Amino acid sequence: MKQAVLEQIRSYYLDFLPFNKVLGIAIDVLDYDTGDAQVRFPMKPELIGNSAAGILHGGVTAAVIDLTGGLSALISCVKYHEKESLEKLYKRLTASATIDMRVDYLRPGKGDAFVCKSRIIRAGSRIVVSKMALSNLQDVCIATGTGTYLVG
Questions:
Q1: Among residues 57, 70, 59, which one has the least CA distance to residue 131?
Q2: What are the angstrom distances between the C-alpha of 50 and each of 43, 46, 47, 56, 74?
Q3: Which domain holds residue 24?
Q4: Does the predicted TM-score (pTM) go above 0.90?
Q5: What DSSP letter does each residue of the chain carry, written as one string?
Q6: What CATH number has the domain bearing residue 25?
Q7: Which residue numbers in the chain have pLDDT < 70?
């Protein structure tokens, strides 16, 4: 069951969220045991926030940090409520939302592509807190974030 639900989460993020398509999001990791998630996306002209410097828009940085933390929150929800029926679990997942998020911009978003990683720092039945980091392919950390999510 857990693998099927993780694939549903992957499909939802990649196939049904138009903004994620604009960003070019690919999901590399959804780890059921740890709650870790990892996404990547390429730099594209549509994502530039400062055309003179050619750097990633801060809103894109925040959005990717949020969506990656949200993936970890959904994994945590699945794990916490794994004994529930699929119907009830899907209701929880579709009712999830970001409650609060903080982003610390550390460096300009320079790079050909970016990777964002998320890990759970607290998981409960309804509230999940994730810590995220966005880096370029040279492993230069662009920004970090912390997100609090309501899950179901």
A1: 70
A2: 13, 11, 9, 7, 33
A3: 2-150
A4: yes
A5: -HHHHHHHHHHHHHHS-HHHHHHT-EEEEE-TTT--EEEEEE--GGGEEETTTTEE-HHHHHHHHHHHHHHHHHHHHHHHTTTS-HHHHHHHHHT-EEEEEEEEE-S---SSEEEEEEEEEEE-SSEEEEEEEEEETT--EEEEEEEEEE--
A6: 3.10.129.10
A7: 1
Block residue for tokens 């410097």 = 53
pLDDT score for 5: 86
Q: Note whether 70 and 147 are within 8 A (CB).
A: yes
**How many domains would you assign to the chain?**
1
